[in-house]
Amino acid sequence: MPTKKTTPDFILLIVTFSLLAVGLTMVYSASAIWAEYKFDDSFFFAKRQMLFAGVGIIAMFFIMNVDYWTWRTWAKVLVIVCFVLLLLVLIPGIGNVRNGSRSWIGVGAFSIQPSEFMKLAMIAFLAKFLSEKQKLITSFKSGLLPSLSLVFTAFGMIMLQPDLGTGTVMVGTCVVMIFIAGAKISHFAFLGMLGVAGFVGLIASAPYRMKRITSFLDPWEDPLGSGFQMIQSLYAIGPGGLFGLGLGQSRQKFFYLPEPQTDFIFAIIAEELGFIGGSFVLILFSLLLWRGVRIALGAPDLYGSLLAAGIIAMVAIQVMINIGVVTGLMPVTGITLPFLSYGGSSLTLMLMAIGVLLNISRYSRY
Questions:
Q1: What is the helix (H) or strand (E) element at residue 104, kind and residue range?
Q2: Which DSSP letter does residue 162 get?
Q3: Which of 32, 168, 277, 311 could anchor a disulfide with 42, C-beta 3.0 to 4.6 Å?
Q4: Strand, helix or coil at 13?
């Protein structure tokens, strides 16, 4: 167990608060018109996002001062609790349905999304498993299969909601961790083929997913249906130009781009702040990932290294998918942009994860 503490990574802390400031500003800018129309309060979403940010910041600073080995001790309990929550969310009357997915537990706007917290719990548990069984990870039966079985059990439960986006991020994060731990490339090639076949099956089994694929290839085939959101997103990005239309001056948020404060908030950033503003956001994410990688490389033990790597992989995968969707490079899926999109569970989870990273940085040698 590490014992020598230093100060937490100051650059990581500053970058996190910078992303949070941009996020709070843009949530208000993107949501004000819709919030005024629906709730007669232009600050409706902004106030809730500030509340979630406050809770997340408190959790981040608390976790920053909790020895990261604590998560190794409680990893199994955390995963079990998250599995129970994933079961509860599927029960009518307990789980709330939004946009066709039964993914939330709670009342009104103050609900939690168990699948978001499963991502962090799975990272903590997998880091524990892989650090203890590293010598077995090259064995398909004794190392790779047990870890993937747990991951895909969680994925299956998330897909029952259904929530392909969150499940994809979780699986992608876990695969990166397993690869870093030393799994054989040949095993990954075999599993990759199975994964592609399974992914195609998931898409073919749900007509709305197939429509998302076809609308990705040609959104103008159904401009008022499955292609509508992507077209409106591109309409937002295009006029932004180099410097944007100006903060608060978006046109697409006037009931063209559906719920622009959530998954498609980057389109509003590009429209209002232009290429310069969008690039600034990407630079902030790049800095965050750079500091995270340094913390992972300098961690004093394998558990800390895998835990940090898992958190950074989760953020990186989520950013790539979200921005890929918004810019038309990937099919539409429900993935929030970390720290920027409106959503209490996502924001709180990300700030908690940064708290874990900051604690690891207090022991890292870099």
A1: strand 101-107
A2: T
A3: 32
A4: helix
